[in-house]
């Protein structure tokens, strides 16, 4: 079914204020953290302070003596209560294989070792501070052993993640110009402003969990599995999410504990993990190392590309992002070698953080490309142009669309790139050294199965229901625009319900798949409605009798045929029964593989990860692209680094909601600034513990750090990615920004910084 | 004076032990609430957990993010580092009390017009801070707005849109005053 | 947060009398004054401070927050809020460095809350001090050791350190106080006293847990800045990783009395690099009576950091500190100052 042919409303692509805006600016939007229930008891976590070892003994005397304490969960009274849910990368739900409060074993610093529940938050916190944990610590491994790693530290097999073609090493040796360099990226934490909170309440054997979530169906099913109850006995509610960025996708160890406490006390229990605890309650972006070798001929054409990555994971799990899948196909190159290694350390299991694979891996490649341009004395934009490709260099599959060159053209022009003096250190404004740099942004177009229910009432109002999520991405608005378009009604008449596991299942809001997956599902549900109304209308004795049903569309509260006849919606609806009509769809991505076609909706209803990723989309590869230009300023004496200007041009297929898409890209560019200059979780390697666990010491940009940011939406049509032609873009904008900034720092100072973040001391 | 009964009535004063209860009246958005609280309760937790005024957000609980910004006697402050007991008798305004019932403050309207938020969780704090920024006379230039709004972190990074919203609302607010 | 009794101060005398109690230092006393609360409540929440009784001195604000300027100098009540002083026209005009130091500290909300008295007494940001799960911290638990010396110490001090503590003093305003020869008025149950600001803070030495010379129950009531020729030609330069809302990586206060390009008198203080508010007499001496140019500024900066000691993560700080001071010196010499 080609739903795009039905679109006539002019709603998709229309700039509009987000439809949930009023709730957000008035404080009326109820985030999961805002749920206040009668008779709530409050929980407070106690975390391990060693990274590896065993708990020898608890002394709870002092804690239990605190007025109002109701319960203290430790492994001694909770082990066996939480069943194992498999790690999400192994086909389960959990952010880690470690089962909460299962045993005295300590896997990492900041592991939950106890949870105090009390009448008030104040009492719970006080008692938690009074829990005494005696443990025996063993020596712990913090991460990489060496600054420059050894190849292949684990024998783990990465099916499909290590693309290779030709003979990269020989081609490198034979190249006229060679770049051979190491790059590193630091540990980073999402630090969404909404904390990791959970409220659980039982009504008989029915559990409701209020928790900020990017995947309510995963949360529901995973929690049911952990508690050994049927999934239908669990409801997960998260209509708003105060920032997620990947951290609220997999099931963390706190949730089951709150559910168990609520059951034991037979009253609601609310947990608000502190900002500090949040550094190990959920996941993080682990540090990475990269070895890049580029070989090119004198004209700048790549002859050899080699990218080996090293990533840190926990002892318990093989988390990896393996970004060479992307870096191997960014540019034309006949010889490509890639390899990815995992180094296990005594840390919590890392997880997705906005553009998980691309942020670290593209930083390395796009820095190396800038080094190559410098070695060739070539304009870095020209180098990208020369090496642009229409097909994947690995298997020659075509890109479904690729507007990288147009993005570079548009962004370069808006930025004024032609005025750049290429000599490092040549541009200065008063006391500030000025540098201009650029880099490529790219992100795979992932699409997942999704379900949606649309209900259209005789008065022209409609209700759209799907268990998708609006993380601030604008999902409410994009979905409403899609429904308004296909139902031919105004935006105001659409009511969208998201973030509740009682709604038809939708995929995790991750991998930038949500807009494509859900809007296609909604369009199909609307088409279901249109089709039924139209077929009944043409067979009736009404105004549309005998018309071609397929040509009838919904417009302004009426059914309209191609020959100009029309009938009021009310009348069409009354023919099919009393009241509203319900449309339902189970969208299967057009590019899905056979297993996903067969099993996709079963997996989806079980809350399991199921997605067609951009590199396995049948006979082509599908990616969104962008080009980013930045200006940095470095003080000539004191070396503060500021970024007064960013320009990004992005092509991501059809843009459903330009207002919110623009905001996504704007925020992502600023994320790129943060990742280049500000963010780093510091580890005290003596004991493998994080040290800067708050928002004063873990820095993200403040308002004063950001000045001019320009986002250019480059029009792009792509009929291969899905019926509506949508590519995701939430994770596109912060890919490459860190390299663009590092490249600009080089241009300003002549200093090539290959280790992020770039700080004052790197430039003194 | 309205007497407000909290959802739960922890009878702190009746308990023995170390906890100290305080009886107080909080004046929030023009309404008085009589409360008995543990002396440790912050204004933020009192607003959220006792009065169900959850528009004021907890983002760090230690003065590092600005999500809990409210006005006390017209000045923007952080409710997470303020004891509820210490603001008895002062006029507290939260996001819920910024505009008349059913209406929008020009700043709220401007934030919508400029898409000055994404997830929206820092937004009430941003708006309370922004209103004060204008009334303090510290929103006259873009640089001033950026500097004097730097106490409100936005992880979604809507900063340029926030600046644009404040510039619009500043004009509307100044027009409204004259 | 541990339980505490909360009470409001009725008047100054009864407040200081009520707070007078036996303790090895003021900050470790079981009775604490609550003013802005921005340091105290923060540290109580994370269990670093555990007072049993809080005396809320905000009711004394009216009498202790006066800002007055006359020929003898500037008086600032200790309960004046940072924002009120920062934007006060007399302060902005006559003592620009005070206004700048206050405006560049914390955030607008925190400046509306924090008082001047609390500001100068703010505690270090050393993460090992601020997290009680680190066993070794001599400042928190005397004799337990120092986690920072061999730990992560990018933000730690290079001046005034000891074997027992290298935690940096985090404030901005105090650098203006120490540079401008300010004095502090203190009320106590045994009577009032007035001391040079430079006598308020104590080097960590072997007692880093005793941070000031205040006795338990003593309360700062006022700061006094004398009128001096260098006050108007003064500035505060704060260098940090982000543009705002961050503690100084390095900072400098310079107040200069310049005549025909020659330094008649000068005051220099350094922030972000020392364990206490840090006046650099060595740097001042290197410039007094000399022309102020790039090379002289560099010599002064060398002198300022001649005794610096680094610990790994902060190896860059002497160089950054010197660059910061040179930049501040050259900038202050260029200022247009009307007489």
Automatic annotation (TrEMBL), chain A:
The name this protein goes by in its record: Xanthine dehydrogenase family protein molybdopterin-binding subunit
SUPFAM superfamilies in the cross-refs: CO dehydrogenase molybdoprotein N-domain-like, Molybdenum cofactor-binding domain
Lineage: superkingdom: Bacteria
Cross-referenced InterPro entries: Ald_Oxase/Xan_DH_a/b, Ald_Oxase/Xan_DH_a/b_sf, Ald_Oxase/xanthine_DH-like, AldOxase/xan_DH_MoCoBD1, AldOxase/xan_DH_MoCoBD2, AldOxase/xan_DH_Mopterin-bd_sf
MF-aspect GO terms: iron ion binding; oxidoreductase activity
Family annotation (Pfam families): Ald_Xan_dh_C, MoCoBD_1, MoCoBD_2
UniProt domain Aldehyde oxidase/xanthine dehydrogenase a/b hammerhead: residue ranges: 26-139
Stretch forming the signal peptide: none
UniProtKB/TrEMBL annotation, chain C:
Keywords: FAD, Flavoprotein
Keyword check for Transferase: no
TM helices/strands, residue ranges: none
One annotated GO molecular function: FAD binding
PROSITE patterns from the UniProt entry: FAD_PCMH
FAD-binding PCMH-type domain ranges (all copies): 1-230
A Pfam family per the record: FAD_binding_5
Record carries keyword Flavoprotein: yes
PANTHER family in the record: XANTHINE DEHYDROGENASE FAD-BINDING SUBUNIT XDHB-RELATED, XANTHINE DEHYDROGENASE SUBUNIT C-RELATED
The protein, known as: Xanthine dehydrogenase family protein subunit M
Organism: Microvirga alba
């Amino acid at each position: 079914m080609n739903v795009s042919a039905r679109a006539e409303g002019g709603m998709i692509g229309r700039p509009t204020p987000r439809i949930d805006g009023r709730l957000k600016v008035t404080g009326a939007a109820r985030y999961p953290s805002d749920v206040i229930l009668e008779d709530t008891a409050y929980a407070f976590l106690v975390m391990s302070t060693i990274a590896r070892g065993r708990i020898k003994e608890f002394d709870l005397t002092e804690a239990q003596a605190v007025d109002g304490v109701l319960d203290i969960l430790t492994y001694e009274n909770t082990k066996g209560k939480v069943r194992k849910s498999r790690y999400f990368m192994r086909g389960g739900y959990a952010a880690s294989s470690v089962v909460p409060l299962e045993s005295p074993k300590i896997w990492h610093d900041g592991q939950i070792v106890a949870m105090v529940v009390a009448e008030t938050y104040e009492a719970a916190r006080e008692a938690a501070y009074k829990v005494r944990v005696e443990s025996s610590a063993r020596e712990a491994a913090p991460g990489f052993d060496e600054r420059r790693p050894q190849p292949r530290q684990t024998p783990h097999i990465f099916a499909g993640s290590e693309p290779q073609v030709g003979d990269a090493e020989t081609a490198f040796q034979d190249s006229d110009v060679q770049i051979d360099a190491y790059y590193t990226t630091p540990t980073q934490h999402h630090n969404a402003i909404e904390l990791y909170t959970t409220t659980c309440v039982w009504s008989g054997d029915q559990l409701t969990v209020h928790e900020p979530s990017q995947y309510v169906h995963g949360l529901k099913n995973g929690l049911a599995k952990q508690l050994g109850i049927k999934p239908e006995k669990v409801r997960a509610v998260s209509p708003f999410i105060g920032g997620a960025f990947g951290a609220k996708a997999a099931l963390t160890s706190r949730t089951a504990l709150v559910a168990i406490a609520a059951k034991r006390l037979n009253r609601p229990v609310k947990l608000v993990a502190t900002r500090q605890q949040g550094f190990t309650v959920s996941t993080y972006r682990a540090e990475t190392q990269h070895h890049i070798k580029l070989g090119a001929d004198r004209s700048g054409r790549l002859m050899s590309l080699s990218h080996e990555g090293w990533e840190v994971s926990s002892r318990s799990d093989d988390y990896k992002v393996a970004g060479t899948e992307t870096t191997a196909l960014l540019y034309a190159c006949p010889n490509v070698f890639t390899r990815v290694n995992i180094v296990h350390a005594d840390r919590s299991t890392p997880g997705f953080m906005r553009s998980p694979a691309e942020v670290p891996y593209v930083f390395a490649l796009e820095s190396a490309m800038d080094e190559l341009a410098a070695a060739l004395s070539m304009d870095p934009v020209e180098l990208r142009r020369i090496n642009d490709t229409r097909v994947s260099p690995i298997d020659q599959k075509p890109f479904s669309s690729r507007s990288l060159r147009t993005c570079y053209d548009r962004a370069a022009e808006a930025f004024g790139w032609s005025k750049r003096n290429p000599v490092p250190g040549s541009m200065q404004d008063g006391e500030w050294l000025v540098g201009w740099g650029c880099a490529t942004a790219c992100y795979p177009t992932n699409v997942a199965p999704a379900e949606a229910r649309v209900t259209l009432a005789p008065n022209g109002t409609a209700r759209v229901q799907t268990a998708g999520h609006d993380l601030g991405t604008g999902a409410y608005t994009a979905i409403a625009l899609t429904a308004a378009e296909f139902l031919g009604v105004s935006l105001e008449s659409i009511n969208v319900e998201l973030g509740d596991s009682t709604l038809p299942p939708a995929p995790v809001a991750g991998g930038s798949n949500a807009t494509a997956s859900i809007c296609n599902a909604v369009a199909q549900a609307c088409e279901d409605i249109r089709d039924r109304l139209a077929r009944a209308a043409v067979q009736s004795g009404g105004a549309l009798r005998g018309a071609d049903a397929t040509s009838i569309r919904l417009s302004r509260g009426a059914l309209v045929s191609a020959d100009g006849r029309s009938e009021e919606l009310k009348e069409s609806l009354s023919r099919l029964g009393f009241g509203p009509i319900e449309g339902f769809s189970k969208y299967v991505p057009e590019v899905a593989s056979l297993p996903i076609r067969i099993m996709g909706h079963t997996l989806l209803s079980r809350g399991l990860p199921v997605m067609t990723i951009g590199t396995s989309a049948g006979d082509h590869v599908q990616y969104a692209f962008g080009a980013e230009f930045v200006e940095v300023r470095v003080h000539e004496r004191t070396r503060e680094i500021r970024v007064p200007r960013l320009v990004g041009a992005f092509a991501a297929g059809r843009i459903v909601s330009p207002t919110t898409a623009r905001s996504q890209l704007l925020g992502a560019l600023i994320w790129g600034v943060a990742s280049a200059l500000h963010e780093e979780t510091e580890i005290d390697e003596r004991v493998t513990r994080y040290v800067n666990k708050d928002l004063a010491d873990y820095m993200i940009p403040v308002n004063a750090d950001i000045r001019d940011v320009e986002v250019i939406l480059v029009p792009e049509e792509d009929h291969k990615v899905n019926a509506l032609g949508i590519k995701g873009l939430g994770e596109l904008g912060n890919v490459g920004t860190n390299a663009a900034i590092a490249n600009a720092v080089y241009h300003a100072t002549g200093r090539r910084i290959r280790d992020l973040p770039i700080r004052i001391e790197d430039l003194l | 004076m309205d007497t407000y009964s909290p959802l739960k009535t922890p009878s702190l004063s009746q308990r023995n032990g170390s906890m100290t209860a305080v009886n107080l009246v909080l004046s929030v958005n023009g309404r008085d609430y009589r409360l008995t609280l543990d002396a440790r309760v912050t204004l933020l937790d009192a607003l959220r957990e006792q009065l169900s005024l959850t528009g004021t957000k907890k983002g760090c609980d230690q003065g590092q993010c600005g999500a809990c910004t409210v006005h006390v006697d017209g000045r923007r402050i952080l409710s997470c580092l303020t004891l509820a007991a210490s603001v008895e008798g002062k006029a507290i305004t939260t996001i819920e009390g910024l505009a008349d019932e059913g209406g929008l403050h020009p700043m709220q309207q401007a934030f919508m017009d400029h898409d000055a938020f994404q997830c929206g969780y820092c937004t009430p704090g941003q708006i309370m801070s922004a209103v004060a920024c204008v009334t303090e006379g510290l929103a006259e230039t873009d640089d001033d707005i950026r500097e004097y709004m730097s106490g409100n972190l936005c992880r979604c990074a809507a900063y340029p849109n926030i600046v644009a919203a404040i510039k619009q609302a500043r004009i509307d607010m100044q027009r409204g005053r004259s | 947060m541990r339980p505490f009794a909360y009470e409001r101060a009725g008047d100054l005398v009864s407040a200081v009398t009520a707070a007078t109690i036996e303790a090895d230092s003021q900050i470790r006393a079981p009775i604490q004054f609550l003013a802005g609360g921005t340091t105290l409540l923060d540290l109580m929440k994370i269990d670093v401070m555990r007072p049993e009784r809080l005396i809320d001195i905000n009711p004394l604000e009216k009498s202790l927050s006066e800002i007055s300027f006359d020929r003898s100098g500037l008086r600032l009540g200790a309960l004046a809020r940072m924002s009120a002083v920062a934007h006060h026209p007399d302060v902005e005009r006559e003592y620009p460095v005070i206004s700048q130091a206050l405006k560049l500290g914390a955030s607008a909300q925190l400046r509306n809350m924090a008082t001047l008295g609390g500001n100068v007494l703010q505690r270090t940001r050393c993460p090992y001090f601020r997290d009680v799960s680190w066993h070794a911290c001599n400042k928190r638990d005397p004799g337990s050791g120092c986690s920072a010396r061999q730990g992560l110490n990018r933000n730690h001090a290079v001046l005034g350190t000891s074997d027992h503590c290298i935690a940096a003093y985090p404030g901005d305003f105090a650098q203006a106080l120490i540079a401008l020869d300010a004095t502090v008025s203190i009320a106590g149950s045994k009577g009032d006293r007035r001391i040079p600001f430079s006598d308020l803070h104590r080097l960590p030495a072997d007692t880093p847990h005793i941070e000031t010379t205040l006795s338990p129950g003593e309360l700062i009531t006022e700061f006094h800045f004398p009128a001096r020729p260098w006050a108007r030609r003064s500035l505060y330069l704060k260098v940090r990783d982000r543009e705002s809302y961050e503690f100084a990586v390095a900072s400098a206060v310079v107040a200069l009395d310049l005549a025909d390009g020659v330094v008649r008198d000068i005051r220099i203080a350094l922030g972000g690099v020392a364990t206490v508010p840090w006046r650099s007499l060595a740097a001042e001496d290197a410039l007094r009576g000399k022309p102020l140019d790039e090379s002289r500024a560099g010599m002064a900066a060398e002198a300022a950091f001649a005794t610096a000691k680094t610990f790994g993560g902060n190896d860059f700080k002497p160089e950054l500190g010197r660059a910061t001071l040179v930049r501040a010196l050259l900038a202050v010499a260029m200022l247009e100052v009307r007489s």
